[in-house]
Design goal:
With 118 residues, the chain is of the alpha+beta class. It has helices at 13-29, 37-46; strands spanning 5-7, 54-59, 67-70, 74-76, 79-80. It has one domain (5-98). It binds iron/sulfur cluster. Iron/sulfur cluster (SF4) binds next to loops.
Length: 118
């Protein structure tokens, strides 16, 4: 692990659930748009795979979740990971990179704007 990474307290289950709810509601309201699979792979290979916050062994959902997490127990310059599963595979239903609203907590990439027609 890189020297500039600190180990921090894990985000509470309640807080993670609240964040996930807000993101999923926004995603649902936008009609479930997805990032292109090529873009998901590129984001992972360009940023997450090389990121000190990425933990290839942790699961975002215990036991049943796929391994590979933007770890909520790792922090760089006071910014910690979101605790989401991230992978190069856009077909994994828990892969946060496939959701356009997912932005990197460290600012390596932004969210894609989605238009909600109320
Ligand atoms: S989303 Fe950002 S902070 Fe999280 S693992 Fe990917 S590059 Fe690192």
């Amino acid at each position: 692990m890189a020297d500039d990474v600190q180990i921090v307290k894990r985000t509470s289950f309640l807080e993670k659930g609240h964040q996930a709810f807000l993101t999923l509601r926004q995603w649902q309201e936008a009609g479930y748009p997805g990032r292109h699979p090529d873009d998901v792979r590129e984001l992972f290979e360009t940023h997450c795979m090389r990121c000190p916050i990425y933990d290839p062994n942790r699961r975002s959902i215990p036991i049943i979740g796929k391994r590979g997490m933007c770890s909520d127990t790792r922090s760089v310059d006071g910014v910690k990971g979101c605790g989401c599963h991230v992978s190069p595979d856009a077909s994994e239903w828990t892969n946060a990179l496939a959701i356009p609203q997912k932005a990197c907590p460290l600012g390596h990439f932004g969210a894609v704007a989605v238009i909600v027609d109320y």
